[in-house]
Design brief:
Helices cover about 40% and strands about 20% of the residues. With about 140 residues, it is of the alpha+beta class.
């Protein structure tokens, strides 16, 4: 049964994988490099990973055929938005929250690899109404 606790444990493990990539590579590389390495690390740890897949956008019942793509999705539950930037703009959070809504996924993690300490300053998690509807345990 899918629970908030299960998703929180999954999130902890995903962040652990991101920290491993960051420890190995450090800051300063392109987002695409971190994405490839993180996908590899996640797969090594037994996760099901999808990346750069289209996000369907329906407006008033019509498929808009937009070119929206998420960075990474883990176990078909957690959406990852990856960055390698000096400044984290609030729009990055808004984009992730919108992707979560459109994909109907309960949790998202915004990860910025261009930082000194990924655990303390390089990641932020988000939940939405899909998460809130899940049982705690």
């Amino acid at each position: 049964m899918l629970t908030q606790n299960y998703i929180d444990q999954l999130t902890y493990k995903i962040i652990g994988c991101a920290i491993e990539v960051h420890k190995e590579l450090g800051p300063g590389l392109l987002e695409s490099i971190y994405e490839k390495c993180l996908i590899h690390e996640l797969k090594l740890n037994g996760f099901e990973v999808k990346n750069q897949m289209s996000i369907p956008l329906f407006y008033r019942g019509v498929d808009m055929n937009c070119n929206l793509r998420f960075d990474v999705m883990v176990n078909d539950l957690v959406v990852l938005e990856l960055k390698s930037v000096v400044i984290m703009h609030p729009i990055f959070e808004a984009v992730l929250l919108t992707y979560m809504k459109l994909l109907r996924k309960p949790k998202g993690i915004l990860i910025n690899f261009n930082c000194k300490n990924l655990f303390h300053e390089g990641q932020k998690t988000f939940v939405n109404e899909y998460y809130a509807k899940l049982p705690l345990k």
